[in-house]
């Protein structure tokens, strides 16, 4: 059985190693193999290999580009998503802006109403205060109550704000003089003038309200000619009333702006403004210390010429004040000449 088994195994191996093929098929296969051996080296040359390499490279590039294109597509989708979100946010902000603009307009209208109300209230209140300030007892009571310093501070700030906001080229003088704001500042200036008209008030202004006096002098020099003459008159009257006090005139004389404002206002064009400027100049000329402080500045030819011109005014009170001022200036000139000759 062993021998039989080995024979059977050899027979199977023989069948696996050898295959029966027709001779014609074998010849044909042999011919094809020989042809391939002959022509294959010609086909598999360097050009083909280079082409294959390029194809592989191109395939890798295409694959890379596809990957980049996919990344760009994802980025595009992300940017589109952000754009949509930004557009929604922009639309929301636009709507909020429109709402805020409407609220701002409403607030502006309400603020204007409140400003008009405050102006009307301030004008009426200060008009009453102006009337009350004509009483010396009222001014004395204000000083006793300690309320006057805060009022004078508010008055100075209000007058300064009003003068700084003036625009004579845009607004007509008539419109401004009829406004509540103008009536308000007129009443403030009138109240200050009345306070300075009574001894206790004048003494207080001379000693404790230097900021107010400096503000009045600066604003008077700053204001344009022919604008708000009533306000200028009240401010000049207040300074004149203070100048009655020796301490008040001393402080005013130490301010380098006093003489320029007098000179400026004498050329204002409104005769009442010129009149009260002359009166303030007369007050300076009557005080020896002030005269010594200003010296020859009071005898400038331009100043003398201006006073001389006013002495020919057709307004009796202005003409008289100018003539009196000329007499004072000539007297001062003679004194200075006598001192020079004695030296």
TrEMBL record:
Superkingdom, natural source: Eukaryota
Coiled coil: 48-103
GO cellular component: cytosol
Gene3D superfamilies listed in its UniProt record: Leucine-rich Repeat Variant (1.25.10.10)
Keyword Coiled coil: yes
InterPro entries, per database record: ARM-like, ARM-type_fold, HSF2BP
Keyword check for Coiled coil: yes
Protein name in the entry: Heat shock transcription factor 2 binding protein
Species of provenance: Cynoglossus semilaevis
